[in-house]
Amino acid sequence: MQTILLPPVVFLLTIVVMILLNQYIPVVRFWETHICWIGVPMIVLGLIIAQWHVRLFKKLGTNVNTFKDPDILTTDGLFRYSRNPVYLGFLIALAGVGIVLGSATPFLAWAGFGLLTNYWYIPFEERAMLRKFGADYVDYKRRVRRWL
Question: Which residue spans traverse the membrane (predicted)?
Fold first, then answer.
């Protein structure tokens, strides 16, 4: 059986990779330590955005699992402005982690997470949404941008 990593697992693995890159290949220190704490509110904001929408899924009775067919076309919350607010929250939080770490190399992992999300997870989900919701999803895609 093929094992596929769920986005939250990849999110956590990305944090580990960011820390390792910062520890062992700290290329270009960006700022002094006291400025690095600016990343903390970004981490908190990103996690709040992601968790808020996971709770919204549960409230609406739809599944959160990327690899299961969707139950409901969710257009509430930040889904009015972004088709992917959970991934957006993850990226904001990861950017905050990169700022806290304070060097350039962690952002390689951040970019990797963004590319993986944009070119693999999201297209996979969008195909499932199109199969399930057809014209309603096409209309939603027309009205709401992928990220912001």
Answer: 6-28, 35-54, 88-121
